[in-house]
Amino acid sequence: MWIVNDATKDYSESGSSFRQALFFMDVGFKLFDTMIWCKDGGGAVGSNLSYAQNFEYMFVLSKGKPKTTNLIYDKPNLSFKADKKIEVYEKSRRNVEQTNNKKRVIKVLEKSKRNNWWVLTPAQEECSSWHPAVYPQELVRDHVISWSNEGDLVLDPFMGSGTTAKVARSLGRKYIGFEISEEYVKLANKRLQLTKTLFDD
After folding, report:
1. Distance CA 34, CA 64 (A)
2. Are residues 79 and 11 part of one domain?
3. 54: domain range?
4. Interior CA angle at 172 toward 67 and 128, to 5°?
5. pTM more than 0.85
6. What's the structural domain count of the chain?
7. Looking at the structure, do residues 141 and 191 belong to the same domain, yes or no?
């Protein structure tokens, strides 16, 4: 998962988001999904000539087919009714010329698959004032859940304030983080010491 935004200079966005996505593809990664983080109630104001900048790209990158996908089903399904079932008739794949159909029965789920644009409020934690780019824990949590299982190793190459490690630990994942700022390493360690895991009482 790669989250990136563009700077604006001389009336032009930098295009860094697209350049980085294409670079990952050039070096062998698959651009599995392009997602959007809509910043509910936050984001950059932008210039007087443009609309408020309230979203960031979230690129889901993988080496081939993703190892794990735990898609989140939390979107209300308007077609749902208790114990409702739909009879679906589909043409047999064995012979597309045949007119006989086979019947399936599908149970409609109460919740449907989430969209690939997520509306979340920017981080409001105390540490958000200590670091310029703290992501909301809900955003990190949902990505960790979506692309890993308990016991998996989660890597954050730009650790920052340690949100990814904190969330990974709380969800029963292992984690590794890289960070060049000693100040942020201390902050991340402090947050991790206060983090409970799935196995804590």
Report:
1. 16
2. no
3. 1-67+115-121
4. 100
5. no
6. 3
7. yes
